[in-house]
Amino acid sequence: MIWTQPEIINWSQLLLDSYSKFLGHQLIERTSEVEQQAKELFFASFVVVSHQTEEDPILNYGNQIALDLWETDWENFTRTPSRLTAEPVNRQERQQMLMQAATQGFIDNYRGVRISSKGKRFFIEKAIIWNVVDVKGSVCGQAATFSEWSIWQN
């Protein structure tokens, strides 16, 4: 159970705290213990994905709906360079969006095409991208959430 791992519980708290800091409201209701919050985030009805701050960031979190949408499992997802979630033709636009979020702290209403591990294209809408900050306020990653997407027929 992925959400029970201490590093995932800690990262989930950073995701939730950072979202609240930049957006001014909660991503999920946070009335329960941190372990339960990690479980609720993992099984949320919307996508949550993130990466850290490496030069070529590797995905380090994807909740269950993200794993399903990208047609992969946790082990493969968390070994995937973040840039590979978009096709080569869409990577420059994706990079510009990430840079804008890094500068502003977050962006909302992003839309774009993504591709699953098996080549299925999908169009995401109304995505929110935000910086993930640690307890000292230093940027340690970026995350995205969205609940609207449509599968393209290939």
Short description:
This protein has 154 residues and is α+β, with helices and mostly antiparallel strands. It is built from 5 helices and 6 strands; from the N terminus they run ααββαααββββ. Strands 1, 2, 3, 4, 5 and 6 form a 6-stranded antiparallel sheet that branches.
Report on the architecture of this protein:
This protein is α+β, with helices and mostly antiparallel strands and 154 residues long. The protein has a single domain (2-151), classed as 2-Layer Sandwich (Beta-Lactamase), CATH 3.30.450. The protein contains five helices and six strands. Strands 1, 2, 3, 4, 5 and 6 form a six-stranded antiparallel β-sheet that branches. A hairpin with a 5-residue loop joins strand 3 (106-115) and strand 4. The longest helix is centred in the first third of the chain and has 18 residues, at 6-23. The radius of gyration is 14 Å and the shape is globular. It starts with 5 loop residues before the first helix and ends with a strand.
Low-confidence stretches: none
Mean pLDDT: 92
Q: What is the CATH architecture descriptor?
A: 2-Layer Sandwich
* CATH superfamily descriptor: PAS domain
- Number of structural units classed as domains: 1
- The secondary-structure class comes to alpha+beta
Please report the total strand number as a whole number. 6
Q: Kindly report the CATH topology.
A: Beta-Lactamase
Distance between the termini: 34 Å
> How much helical structure, as a percent, in the residues?
25-40%
Cα Rg: 14 Å
> Which assembly state applies to the chains in this document?
single chain
How many helical stretches? 5
Shape: globular
Order of helices and strands: HHEEHHHEEEE
- CATH class type: Alpha Beta
Q: Approximately how much beta-strand content do the residues carry?
A: 25-35%
Main sheet properties: 6 strands, antiparallel
